[in-house]
Amino acid sequence: MVLASCSDNISSLGVDFFNDTQLDISFIDTATVKMYTQRYDSVNTSGTQRILVGSHHEPKLGAGSAAMYMQFGMRGPITVDRNSAAYDHMTLTLYYDKYSYYDTLSPLTLNVHRVAKEMNWTSYSSVSDVPVAQPALGSITVYPRPHSKDSLEIRLNDDLGRQLFKMAQLNSDILASYSNFKKFLNGIAILPDASQNASFVGFNLAKAQLRIYYVDKSTVPVALRSLKFIYDQSYGGVHFCKTNFDRSATKLDVLKSGADYVDAALTDNESYMQDASGVFLRVEFPYLRKINENPNFYFTSAVLYLYPKLGTFSKFEPLPDTLYASQIDLQNSQLSSTLGSFVLQKDPGVDRGYRYQLNMTSYVNTVNNPNIADNFALFVQPIGPKGWSNTAKRMIAEGPGLKDYQTKLVIYYATIK
Question: Does residue 199 share a domain with residue 222?
Fold first, then answer.
């Protein structure tokens, strides 16, 4: 089964060492590869520096959305003169960070809510449940401009704005420190309209601000100024991204927990990975150890090729530049932080095609060690060893089965004649 197809190249390299025999360098490209789609139960999303919000419906991966929860405050007391200042309006101000995924030509609606419960954990995950108050403080529908240098301002409820402005006029203790302010305003949640088939958009976390605009009457002419509340993790600010993916209308609906995975044979001979949705590729080589049963077989190296499915990527859904592989056992316990990385490259043999390539030599040597249990697999994801990268990037991989594009393991070996 493993040696069904090979290519021979007769070589004289090293012939002096083999008593006038010939050294044949050959390769196998039909070793059995099994591919699956697997999911994480949850991912820590409180350590990145991007506000990721948006929604998109994809037939293969489901209807997904990303919402952001964050705390604001100030580095020092905020006050304003009660006699010369008059309240005008309040906004949430966001700055694009040039990241987007899917087509931004579709309208995206963002709703801003007040968090209804204290956010005091050191870390939150993609499935953390934090309630929000109703109704929304403000809402906006935009056609995202991710590369724009302009800010996006969402007008907020004047009741909250006037309340905070009054506190500033009265030198309230609530506005004396970041910690005091967090006790009054637990946080702000930015929730997308999950019914929209729109896009995921990134904003700069460090530049986000709550602003209270007021008229300063002490100058001639009068000036419009603002009080600014910032996000600052060093002052105890907490943030995280909550993602939700409804897979009920897809063939991935069987993925109910992190222990579940689905064979590519049941998903149109495709496997899926996506950062935001928490799904990744699981790859197994069930008969790999059998290569040692062949007489006169000397393993030299191995390469795994992953092929993105043609037609599933574009300028709006670009392929990840790099994929990362880790070694796991068949019970999903991670055995290595990072086995290696795949780099995207143009496939020289396929028009308009691309592929990822990973050196598998050390993996194959480990699997073929008779003193180690034969229960290894790979998981491949578009994120590095530090975890979630706060993106929606994804890749749909061709499973083993297509002649030109199939994912395959190429094993190089030598025989002596």
Answer: yes
Shortest CA distance to 4 belongs to which of 26, 25, 31? Answer: 31
CA–CA separation, 83 and 215 (whole Å): 11
Amino acid at 144: P
Is residue 372 predicted with pLDDT exceeding 80?
A: no
- What is d(CA 16, CA 396) in angstroms, rounded to the nearest whole number? 48
Task: Give the whole-angstrom CA distance, residue 37 versus residue 347.
Answer: 24
Say which residue the tokens 């598998």 belong to: 360
pLDDT score of 212: 97
Domain that holds residue 353: 6-41+254-416
- Determine phi and psi for 199, rounding to 5 degrees: -145, 170
- pTM (predicted TM-score): 0.87
3-state SS record for 269-332: CEEEEECCCCEEEEEECCCHHHHHHCCCCEEEEEEEEECECCCCCCCCCCCCCEEEEEEEECCC
Which element (helix H / strand E) includes 345?
A: strand 340-346
- Produce one character per residue of 24-63: b if its CB has 16 or more CB atoms within 10 Å, e if not: bbbbbebbebbbbbbbbeebebbebebbbbbbbbbebbbb
CB 218 within 8 A of CB 94: no
- Together in a domain, 364 and 269: yes
Is the predicted pLDDT of residue 22 greater than 70, yes or no?
no
CA 110 to CA 139: how far, in whole Å? 6
pLDDT tens digits, residue range 234-293?
Answer: 887 889 999 999 999 999 999 987 778 899 999 999 999 998 888 889 998 888 877 777
CB 3 within 8 A of CB 409: no
Is residue 55 located within the same domain as residue 26? no
Residues 6 or more apart whose CB falls under 8 angstroms from that of 274 comprise: 61, 382, 392, 393, 394, 395
Q: Are residues 391 and 328 in the same domain?
A: yes
Residue 334, pLDDT > 70, answer no
> In the prediction, which pLDDT does 3 show?
40
